[in-house]
Amino acid sequence: MDIEEYLRQKRSLEAKKELLEAKDRLQKQERRREPPASKETISRDDDAPKDQKPQRPERDDSFKREIPASTETLFRRLVMWNMIILVIVVGAAGAFLFLKDDSGATPSDSKNNPITGAAIANIASAQNTTPSPSQSPSPNQTTQPTKKQNYPGPDFKISLEDEELGPFEQPTGNIGGEHLVLNSPYYQDIILKIFNEDSSTMVCFIDRHVTVDENFDNNPELEDYNLDMFIEEVDKKSQEIIKDTAPGTFEQGEYNGIGKVTVEYEVRCYYCLDLLCDEHDPLGETKKSRLLKFSVNPPIIQNQSNTSA
């Protein structure tokens, strides 16, 4: 194709384009000149009665008007969202506290804790005595076992008396300021009284320590220690009376019915943990002791008996 033919086709296409544009403009002008469409009129039938009213067109229910949400519905939605937010916050706080407790959080207040004051004291002492890793003992050092710390037990009073002469003075062990002297080898009028001043029942263990100085030189030849010789349960605000005879028998040596006798009673009382007092609290302990002294056939009496004979 040469240039002249190309130009000829181009001019032909441009002429067709101008013709189409002119035709389009002509159609638009004719549309503008047409009169507007007349409104539809409702024709009345000549046969219909004159007083009959025309029927209204039916309403299209598809175009109903949307009613806006009421104030009550908005309030309910607001309350519902607030509750959801509150549940989320409470759950997050509970999870945080649970993780804090698992990671070694501080223990709760001791007022809400059922552990007794004595147990708390034992825990505190155990924590104070536990060595830290930096203070761990060397292989050459020996560690001492931790001792349990006792706390005060029940409140009570004890009295050591002669059945006829009255109480023995402490710490001398005399009666009325004088040393008791017997002619018989055994003293059978010893009375030990235990009065419970506490508001709880207690159990008491009585140990007896006896020494006999047969030569009256302050060096006893006989000695006996009876652990838990008596065990007495004492009700609250009541008294128990124990009668005893001294010096008794000895595991080593033989008592010959002569000498200076010293008898000491140690009373250890504890709170009962049940109604029958089958168990007691070993850490709540109270100790009290009393002693008495008497002489059996001292040399002075022996000399007087020999002189009279």
Write the layout of secondary structure elements.
Blueprint: H1 3-33, H2 71-102, H3 117-129, E1 151-152, E2 156-162, E3 166-167, E4 180-182, E5 187-196, E6 202-213, E7 222-234, E8 239-246, E9 259-272, E10 280-296, H4 299-308
Parallel strand pairs: 1-10, 4-10
Antiparallel strand pairs: 2-3, 2-5, 5-8, 6-7, 6-9, 9-10
Order of helices and strands: HHHEEEEEEEEEEH
End-to-end C-alpha gap: 184 Å
Given as residue ranges, the uncertain stretches (5+ residues, pLDDT < 50) are 39-46, 105-124, 305-309
If helices are DSSP runs of H or I spanning 4 or more residues, what is the number of helices? 4
Main beta-sheet annotation: 6 strands, mixed
CATH superfamily of the domain at 156-306: Immunoglobulins
| Relative helix content | 25-40%
Structural class: alpha+beta
Q: Tell me the number of strands.
A: 10
Taking Cα atoms only, what radius of gyration do you get, to the nearest Å?
A: 58 Å
Q: What is the annotated CATH architecture of the domain at 156-306?
A: Sandwich
The fraction of residues in strands falls at 25-35%
What labels would you give this structure?
4-stranded antiparallel beta sheet, 28% strand, 309 residues, 6-stranded mixed beta sheet, Immunoglobulin-like, 10 strands
Task: Write a structural description.
This protein is of the alpha+beta class. It has a domain at 156-306: Immunoglobulins (Immunoglobulin-like), CATH 2.60.40.10. Helices cover 28% and strands 28% of the residues. It is built from four helices and ten strands; from the N terminus they run αααββββββββββα. The strands form two sheets. Strands 1, 4, 6, 7, 9 and 10 form a six-stranded mixed beta sheet that branches. A four-stranded antiparallel beta sheet has the order 3-2-5-8, with no helix packed on it. It is rod-shaped, with a radius of gyration of 58 Å. The N and C termini lie far apart (184 Å). Mean pLDDT is 78; it is low at 39-46, 105-124 and 305-309.
